[in-house]
Design a protein that fits this description.
Layout lengths: L1 E3 L4 E3 L4 E2 L6 E2 L10 E9 L9 E2 L3 E5 L6 E4 L10 E7 L7 E6 L2 E2 L4 E2 L4 E6 L5 E10 L6 E10 L8 E5 L3 E3 L5 E4 L3 E8 L6 E5 L2 E4 L2 E4 L3 E9 L8 E10 L7
Parallel strand pairs: 18-24
Antiparallel strand pairs: 1-2, 1-5, 3-4, 5-6, 5-7, 8-9, 9-13, 10-11, 10-12, 10-14, 14-15, 16-17, 16-19, 19-22, 20-23, 21-22, 23-24
């Protein structure tokens, strides 16, 4: 959802995963009116409890009647090691063509064809500090070309989130902790993260998860995988825990 500085909603849409990446994006149609500067804020509302919501810093855009051949779209929060989507967006009635991204540190992308007026490239910066980005647009149609420039401040890498699992009767455990159960036994699990993000839990082996309870069904080895999806302030973290399950002792007759 995008709102202006008066908290009026001007566009909404659903995020779509970007193929081959861990990021998602959405393009929203908006017909502005008037002229001058306008403050816009994007707000993400999760559809389930697997992630947490967030809001972008306010972006100031200038409304003008002039047709801009191409504009660059980029996140305002950029960190070393975190993929960020660069987009070249063609102006009104500009013909399809191709666009290439470069920075003052060198080339970023090859020439990418535009589709429906947009070229996208996933960029992973590896240097902290201010960089000057430029997109060059060209077309086979005469007098159809242009450039757009933006300066961005690439911040240091985000810290990694930390997942902690607590087992009833044992307390907090690590991936190297020996966890043993007897077939038919159950234990209560709880998970915490440094970021406060929810934890996604899965299990493989002769055990089942029922809510926050793990039940050992038969002898063998069960592997619990706990993942934090991360937040805007922490990167993802995944821990695995091995549970050794032994046979239940035979009952005496």
């Amino acid at each position: 959802m995008v709102t202006n500085q008066n908290q009026n909603v001007i566009a909404t849409g659903a995020l779509v995963p970007n193929a081959g990446t861990t990021t998602s994006s959405v393009s929203l149609a908006w017909v502005p009116s008037g002229s001058g500067n306008l403050g816009l804020t994007a707000t993400y509302t999760p559809s389930n409890g697997d992630t947490t919501g967030s809001a972008s810093p306010q972006a100031i855009v200038t409304l003008s009647t002039d047709v801009v051949p191409v504009a660059m779209r980029i996140s305002q929060s950029i960190h070393v090691g975190q993929p960020v989507l660069l987009s070249a967006v063609l102006g009104y009635n500009m013909p399809e063509g191709s666009a290439a991204f470069i920075s003052n540190l060198g080339g970023i992308s090859p020439s990418i064809p535009t589709v429906n007026g947009v070229s996208n490239w996933l960029w992973t910066p590896n240097v902290v500090g201010v960089q000057y980005l430029r997109v060059n647009y060209s077309s086979t149609v005469r007098n159809s070309s242009g450039t757009s420039e933006q300066s961005v401040n690439v911040l240091p890498p985000l810290p990694q989130d930390t997942v902690t699992m607590t087992v009833s009767g044992m307390g907090a455990v690590t991936g190297g902790t020996a966890i043993t159960m007897v077939a038919g036994q159950s234990k209560t699990l709880s998970f915490q993260t440094t970021s406060g993000a929810p934890v996604i839990v899965s299990e493989a082996g002769p055990c089942v998860l029922a809510g926050n309870t793990i039940i050992a069904l038969s002898a063998g080895q069960c592997v619990i995988t706990a993942t934090s999806p991360g937040t805007s302030s922490y990167t993802t973290d995944t821990n695995t825990y091995v549970v050794g399950v032994t046979k239940a002792p035979k009952k005496k007759r």
